[in-house]
């Protein structure tokens, strides 16, 4: 028995190494370069955009619609990159039929709703808490990936779902230790609930995006990533702008800028950098779904949790109780279980 155990471990290590080598050589180098850049886009831009949302609310911003609008207002940036590529590569845009257009409209609407939910979360919760709760998107990515895309579901993945759910329960039970003084009980609950619902919707958007790539666009070239991002952001922008105008928050942006802590220049800096980072983050996520899968996008979306949490503690002096640290450790355990369940090779 003592000799069998090391052999078994070595067999697993060898199987992993073989599996990784086969995976690497099955794709061109350009694939891995794009995947690396897309992953960095998620891991850098998403935390930055989350922190900018918290900066907006912490310094006098009040409109959830403004934060939602910032999330999709960067769609022209994608167009600036995409249109010259058509001429440079001498290719034509993907033809828009009724089914594809309807998919873009639905994804645009869901994206605008998702952004609004997260806006409520960052308005009422510390950035570190909001980021931890957002890690539940990994759970929903697994569930929707299994139900809609037919991704695998095994005991390790189910174990990770239970673990991450337990971590979120710990945060809920310790809500009194990390609440801002000016936030009421009702507002904290609203932020908590909308954060979980936004994470669920985020997981659904990942799964639906993968379906669009596989069944409607096809994985022809990286251009379809830019096309989907452009169209989804454009429709999301239309829906969000409508809400911004109807709520009259659009007209309130000018007066909000004058009362913003740091002045108008600080206000518009937050808005502009928010637009850029949100667009880069979502573009990175869409590219990861295209180049890899909903699983990979869900994992990276969850990995950004500690990055956002640590940055929030350093920059905003967010409260970090023992229960929140415990929740973070348990969440890491859940990540590890999920990754193992998703990528472990079968060893005979």
Helix segment tally: 14
Q: Give a quick account of the main beta sheet: strands, pairing sense, barrel closure.
A: none
The structural domain count equals 1
Structural class: mainly alpha
Span between N and C termini? 18 Å
Strand content: under 5%
Q: Let me know the number of strands.
A: 0
Q: Indicate the radius of gyration in whole angstroms.
A: 21 Å
Shape: globular
**Uncertain residue segments:** none
| Topology order in helix (H) and strand (E) letters | HHHHHHHHHHHHHH
Question: Share of helix among residues?
Answer: over 70%
What is the residue-mean pLDDT, rounded to a whole number? 82
Keywords, separated by commas or semicolons:
14 helices; purine nucleoside transmembrane transporter activity; single chain; 348 residues; mainly alpha; Probable purine permease; globular
């Amino acid at each position: 028995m003592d000799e069998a155990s090391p052999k078994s471990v070595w067999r697993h290590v060898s199987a992993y190494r073989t599996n990784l080598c086969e995976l690497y050589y099955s794709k061109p180098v350009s694939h891995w370069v794009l995947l690396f850049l897309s992953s960095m886009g998620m891991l850098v831009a998403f935390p930055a955009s989350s922190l900018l949302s918290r900066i907006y609310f912490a310094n006098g911003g009040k409109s959830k619609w403004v934060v939602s609008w910032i999330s999709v207002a960067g769609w022209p940036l994608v167009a600036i990159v995409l249109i010259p590529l058509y001429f440079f590569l001498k290719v034509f845009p993907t033809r828009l039929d009724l089914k594809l257009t309807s998919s873009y409209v639905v994804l645009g609407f869901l994206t605008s709703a998702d952004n609004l939910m997260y806006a409520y979360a960052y308005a009422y919760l510390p950035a570190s808490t909001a980021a931890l709760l957002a890690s539940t998107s990994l759970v929903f990515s697994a569930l929707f990936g299994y139900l809609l895309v037919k991704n695998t579901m095994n005991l390790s993945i189910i174990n990770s779902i239970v673990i991450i759910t337990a971590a979120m329960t710990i945060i809920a039970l310790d809500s009194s230790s990390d609440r801002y003084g000016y936030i009421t009980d009702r507002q904290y609950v609203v932020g908590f609930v909308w954060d979980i619902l936004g994470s669920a919707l985020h997981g659904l958007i990942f799964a639906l995006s993968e379906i669009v790539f596989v069944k409607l666009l096809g994985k022809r070239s990286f251009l379809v990533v830019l096309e989907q991002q452009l169209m989804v952001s454009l429709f999301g922008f239309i829906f969000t702008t409508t809400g911004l105008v109807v709520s009259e928050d659009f007209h309130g942006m000018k007066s909000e800028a004058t009362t913003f802590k740091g002045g108008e220049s600080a206000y518009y800096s937050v808005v502009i950098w928010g637009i850029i980072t949100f667009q880069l983050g979502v573009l990175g996520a869409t590219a990861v779904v295209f180049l890899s899968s909903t699983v990979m996008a869900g994992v990276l979306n969850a990995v950004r949790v500690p990055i956002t949490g640590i940055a929030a503690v350093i920059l905003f002096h967010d409260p970090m109780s023992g229960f929140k640290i415990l929740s973070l450790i348990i969440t890491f355990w859940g990540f590890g279980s999920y990754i193992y369940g998703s990528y472990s090779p079968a060893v005979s």
